[in-house]
Amino acid sequence: MIAIFGAGAIGCWVGGKLATGGAPVTLIGRARVMDELADGLTISELDGPTRTVTVTATTDPTTAAGAAITLVTVKSAQTAEAGATLAAVLPERAVVVSLQNGVRNAEVLRAALPGRLVLAGMVPWNVVRRDRGAYHRGTTGMLMIEAAPAGEPLVTAAAAAGLPLESRADITAVQWTKLVMNLNNAINALAGVPLATELAQRDYRRVLAAVMREAMQACAKAKQPLARLAPVPTSWVPRILEMPDGVFRMIARRMLAVDPHARSSMQDDLSAGRPTEVDYLQGEIAALAARVGTTAPVNAALVQLVRAAEGGGKRDFTAAELRAAVSV
Question: Domains in the chain and their CATH numbers?
Answer without folding.
Answer: 2-169 (3.40.50.720), 174-325 (1.10.1040.10)
